[in-house]
Structure formats: C-alpha cells, structure tokens
Amino acid sequence: MAGIETMRTIAVLQSNYIPWKGYFDLVNDVDLFVFYDDLQITKNDWRNRNKIKSRKGVEWISIPIGTDINRLICEVEINPSWQIKHWKTINQNYCKAPFYDMYNDFLKDVYLHRRWTNLSELNQYLIRIISTKYLGIKTEFRDSREYNLSGKKQDRLLELLIKVNAERYISGPAAKAYINPLCFVDSGIDLVWKDYSGYPEYAQLYPPFEHGVSILDLLFNVGPSAPWYIWGWREELPKL
User: Fold this and answer.
1) Pairing, β 49-54 against β 57-62
2) Does residue 150 fall inside a structural domain?
3) What are 105-142's pLDDT values in tens digits?
C-alpha cells in the first residue's frame, strides 16, 4: 500500500495538465490523493499547460481557457478544437522515442476519440489513468467537492484533512510560503514537506536533459521502467 509507515497519509493538490514526474511521486507517497479543483483558476499556471521536449528545445503545449480568472478550476469549460493540435505536436516530437508505440492507443483515445469540454475532468482522467495503468500506483483518488467545505485558505485545507481522517499531510515545498506548521500541530496532523530533488536522469531524445517536463517524456523514453526513475531509485540509496 502507498503511504509512509502505517499513518493515514494524504496529499491535496489541484489537477494539472499531463503533469511532471514529481506530481506522480507525490501521488505515490500517499494513501489518499484529493484533487483540489474547487479553487480559483490561476493565470499562466500548470492547470492548462505543460512542457515537452522538442527538436527546438523545451516547448509549452497549452489548452486555451480564455482570460477570465473569476472561475473555479472545476468550472473551466474548454473547446475540443485544441485536441488534434496537441496530439500532432506530441506525435511529431516523440514518435521515434523507444516506447512511444506502447502509449499510442492511449493518446489517440484521449486526443482523437474523446471530446473534452471541462478542464478538471480532462486533467483528473489523465492523472488517474497514468497513475494506475502505467505507473502501477495504488493510491485512492477523491475530489474535494465531495466534502462540502466551508472554510477559506489554510482553514479550508485543515477542514478537509480532518474530514478524511488525515494523520500525515505531505505538501509541496512551494506551500511553505503560506502554510503555518503550528496549525497542523494543533490539529494533530503531521506535516511533511515533499523533496523533489535527486531524480536520476534518463536518455531523452533531445539533449540537454530537462527534469521539468510532462510525465509523457519519461514514459515515452523509458516505458515500464518509469516508476524506478520517479521513486524506485530511492530504495537503492544507502541508509544513514
């Protein structure tokens, strides 16, 4: 079972578009991963875009969502017109990768056979399928909208963690800017900061190497070995 020791370990995070390997590392660390998509959409963020490696270097692929930021992530409606373009871009840049063919049917189903009209639904679908089917992650997924939350900011997060019986909460390091650790102590929840350092490099099609790209890059280049490059390598580190 995923998680650390025997404590009920939780992560809560907004859904991102085909996120980088660190996102899936966090998912694998916990017993329960809660999508936090009833928060306001942010401009120029990971919710609707990510990076891939191309012949010209690192390239952004973005889903058009308009300029209105007065919406929750789960309220963002999208027009399927971008789907073929993204599939062509991914196909053109990765079709020669060693394991591209292993995921080709999945890509065609997502981009060519389905019509996505809601950003949150698309993101959550991609994350769930990649986690369970291609990375072997056993973590349970839920959505924060299931819990009828009423608080704001940190209080809202703590309300959610209490409702899901969290004993340990793993957070990305960026949250250090606004999380007060003492509030977690008072709530009896162990706060752990995720460390994204130390990932081993792998053979990418277009050097120089870049860690901060979509999980698709790792899957296409190393295939079934992907979990080792995300978390498996830590098992080989010497014990201190």
Assistant:
1) antiparallel
2) yes
3) 999 999 999 999 999 999 999 999 999 999 999 999 99
Within 8 A by CB and 6+ apart from 127, the residues are: 15, 16, 19, 23, 24, 27, 35, 141
Partnered with residue 11 across adjacent β-strands are 33
d(CA 120, CA 202): 30
Which amino acid is it at 108? K
Does the residue 1 lie in any domain? no
Domain of 84, in residue numbers: 9-236
pLDDT in tens, 185-235: 999 999 999 999 999 999 999 999 999 999 999 999 999 999 999 999 998
Domain count, the chain: 1
pTM above 0.90, yes or no: yes
In a domain, 46, yes or no: yes
Q: List the one residue out of 219, 220, 199 whose CA is nearest residue 210.
A: 199
